[in-house]
Amino acid sequence: xxxxKDLKILFPNxxxxxxxxxxxxxxxxxxxxxxxxxxxxxxFHKVDSTVVKDMTSFFQMAGSPEIFNLDCDGIILxxxxxxxYIFFSELKSTFDTSDIFYAKDQIISSYLKINMIMHLLHCxxxxxxxxxxFIACLSPNMSFLRDxxxxxxxxxxxxxxxxxxxxxxxCYFSKRSTVLQPTDCFxxxxxxxxxxxxxxxxxxxxxxxxxxxxSVTVDVNAYI
Length: 224
Hints:
Blueprint: H1 3-10, E1 17-19, E2 22-26, E3 36-40, E4 44-47, H2 49-62, E5 74-80, E6 83-91, H3 97-118, E7 129-137, H4 142-152, H5 159-172, E8 177-180, E9 202-208, E10 215-219
Parallel strand pairs: 3-10, 6-7, 7-9
Antiparallel strand pairs: 1-4, 2-3, 4-5, 5-6, 8-9
Helix pairs in contact: 3-5, 4-5
């Protein structure tokens, strides 16, 4: 894949890196408890996250719907066994319903914008890629889990129940994952997006960061 080189030609002021063997995604906030996820097991194209943040400024000035106004911590592309992947990573300090749901929207927003950029490249076909989102944070505490079960009892169709269902899928399913379609995202409903502008499905994963640790290392082979 020639993405790093091609993106660097189109956007020379951004850092589009080709990383051999591992790649680091960092949370820059000094108050963050989870500061880093290190992906291993492949060679990676790392997209400069500031290009997405700068696109966010455009959508904010345009008055676009809220889903266009967010961004995640890191975007990587890689290829394994002839299959291409895009992984989106978001780091959170706590496993809280609102934070987890917000992280989901940050990842979706980042996909919308990076997909727009990638369509400028002759080497990009969105159908060639499997898209996955990863939320890395510390373990949920017991009081949160009690509140989560209460929220799950809310009326079907409630935004808070959807938040709770999404968090429970990530927290309790054996694979700690769930698959969403665009229609599962409230903020995408009724938007006039074409087929090439949005994902068909996106798989989300929870990566638990051990208590006392601010960094976690993950092998991509565990998620392909």
